[in-house]
Batch of 2 targets.
Target 1
Amino acid sequence: MKVYIETYGCQMNVNDTEVVFSILAKAGYTRTESMDEADVIMANTCSVRDNAEQRIWGRVEVFNQQRKSRPGVVVGILGCMAERLKDSLTSTGKVDIVAGPDSYRRLPEMLADLGEGPQMDVRLSRDETYDDIVPLRTDKNGVSAFISIMRGCNNVCSYCVVPYTRGVERSRDAHTIVREACDVFERGYREVTLLGQNVDSYRWTDADGRTVDFASLLEMVACVNPELRVRFATSNPQDISDEVLLTMARHDNICKHIHLPVQSGSDRMLEKMRRRYTREWYLERVAKIREILPGCGLTTDVIAGFCSETEEDHVLTLSLFEEVGFDSAFMFAYSERPGTLAARKYPDDVPPEVKTRRLEEIIALQGRKSLERYREDIGKRFRVLVEGPSKRDASDLCGRASNYKMCIWKDPVHRAGDYVTVEVTGCTQATLLCKLAE
Ligand code: SAH
Ligand code: SF4
Ligand code: F3S
């Protein structure tokens, strides 16, 4: 039996899909990258914004065509949308399996029980971390691997559906994380990205009562091998500690990049969003990052048009973007998610055209800032990890500098997984154009 899975949403979903492949492989299923030859067709889904869900509904129609033309084909919806929509997915008659993020161990059993009708398991767990499961890596280049260090989220940012789809926060055994990092390094990987919705609240206590926090976990993973790069996401402005920054400074192989979602530049919005920091706090954290880690890459997420956002609030977001100068940003228009605190308490009252206009203003400003930030690197030399041929021109190689900026350069010699020193000769607003340095 062959399984095909499409993955949507965040990097944690990418890693979850690898966990699912591993669980199904043990039960005798093999992975296929072609939907046309699959016996089981699944999507690992995202609910974070309405357009993410609309996309999946389109895929359900496509999957259903396969199901109609090839009797016996099974369609499954996994992940956050499965958790949110539950039996409204099976009741379409187009979906056979609905499995939430904590029920993947039961997939083989659910597949086996399909004779009894559609199968659903959307129970959330307090302790499932898929600790003992070695993900079946699906990346193309064999260089960079995701490692989930925790699941769920204990924050209740009022706009966000994640706590409802992923359940309570739990940290994974530090030793299995380190073992997984050792294992991928031995298999040729040269970069791991530690994943959690709020990595700074990672906390795990061993049998002797010794507690590992995120700073010590970072240190443990950094010590696996100096040639193994370590990245992580996502940091929460409220929780990122000086200890984490100092740990980054101590280890060359911990990449100097922090993804620090700000969401808004207005304190009134931040409070309404239930983010637990102010603009002033955020700017202090940025200053600290730049003091302890000069040259550190800084990226962010922002939401335009949250409930009751005024022009003044929006201007504060623009001025924060101007002041900080992020290298890049993920920028979104607010999308109300049913069941969240904001959906229950605050009207979604910024008109769509205003949201769009504000979002476009942020995008335009950030475009200009990105170009400035990339230009600053012209003339510098970076040690980059080769990811493979560049998408634009296969005779070029691409790979990221420690600060997360993508570099491309002409190179007939090196291969994916090599470290190369390049010199930056030019840039766009998303790429550093380089040459091999002598
Ligand atoms: N745990 C991460 C974010 C996970 S969701 C953090 O706390 O930063 C990724 C991003 O999606 C968020 O940072 C936010 O900018 C955006 N997002 C989440 N809910 C949203 C919503 N309802 N509408 C628009 N954007 C949203
Ligand atoms: Fe959502 Fe906030 Fe948790 Fe991030 S920290 S996943 S934005 S609730
Ligand atoms: Fe989406 Fe779920 Fe990730 S809602 S962003 S896939 S945690």
Note: The chain has a mean pLDDT of 97.
Target 2
Amino acid sequence: MALSETDERIAHVRTAFAALYSGEPVLWAQAPGRVDLMGSHTDYNEGYVLTMPIDRTTWIAARPRDDRQVAVHSLNIEGGETFSLDGDIQRSTAVPWTDYVRGVAKVLQDEGYALRGFDGLVHSTVPFGSGLSSSAALEVATATLFNELSGLGLDPVRLAVLCQRAENTFVGVNCGILDQYTSAAGRAGHVLLLDCRHLAHTVAPIHPDIRIVICDTRYKRALTGSEYPQRRAQCEAGAATLAPRYPGVRTLRDVTLEQLDAAREALDETVYRRSRFIVQENQRVLDLAAALPEKGAAALAALTAESFAGARDLYEIVVPQMEAMLTAIHGAPGVLGARQAGAGFGGCLVAFVERDCVGDFGAHVCAAYREATGIESAVYAVEAAPGAGLLAVE
Ligand code: ADP
Ligand code: MG
């Protein structure tokens, strides 16, 4: 069944490629979306995240060109464009989504890599703007393609860092490393315990009884809004106040709860609450990483509940649709725990569900959330997918 879905997808892309460019793609790059199981906003504090690449992926089917041009179209969004690898690559005014591709090309060239152009067709099963990181999947798929076509020899971590730089400096979204790292370095069947300071990770299996289920509120957040940079600035302000008091503190990753509380009167009230969430969330990542392979049900329930409560009361990234989704989840059969995924302000929740209950769980959540909000949600189980690479297409 999974095989035939993949075959259908390949046939669909192949047909569209032929209509656009004539002929066949010769190379297929893929990069997964991701879901964070624990660790909201910890990445830009150089902390930890428990993260999982998912079997929702972005593909680019491509054929190399010899004229230093890159042509890209997408089956998910209107419009396509051709740009030159010669000269300074600019942002697109007409087809803004190509900036993710342009940005990766620019960053790679600025690093001195010689790139070969291509005709490319993008197709993705990662929903846009839901917190599963379709933008990183597109960047990482693009970099994977350049890596192969141009023989760059980039390892996954370097590739992720350059993709993050493309999103930061070219697209203009000041995201942390989480999304690109997970997409580039993931391993099938495993979650990653990512250390965002040292750009290193360990992998752990999920207990076989547990399934990870995405519960999409279908309420779109806007990450380029002011909330995200504001949270970052508040975290930096917290670290800046604490650093002179405690040797060795550079970011909130280095701060203990005791240190934070001892310095409370020196911190602005909002900065204190933001910092408290990050310090606690960071510890929850480590605790969940220990609980997940064993199916530590009590720990799972407590950690996810604390994470959501902190996101709501301390970090203030929860909107009413997310509350309604959590209530729907908690009324459903087989739930072990659930929390926000991604940056918050809508998007998805991630639920840990008893494997045997996934069908009933989904039906209940959809109905209860619809009843509460009038919104048709999307609820689906995901598997831990491999990180980015080439697809073997016959
Ligand atoms: P998220 O990364 O959480 O999905 P973002 O707002 O960061 O949300 O990125 C979504 C944007 O990435 C889309 O609006 C689009 O511009 C671009 N994008 C992602 N996937 C594709 C795709 N398959 N085709 C074209 N553009 C895409
Ligand atoms: Mg994104």
Note: The chain has two domains: 5-205+385-390, 210-382.
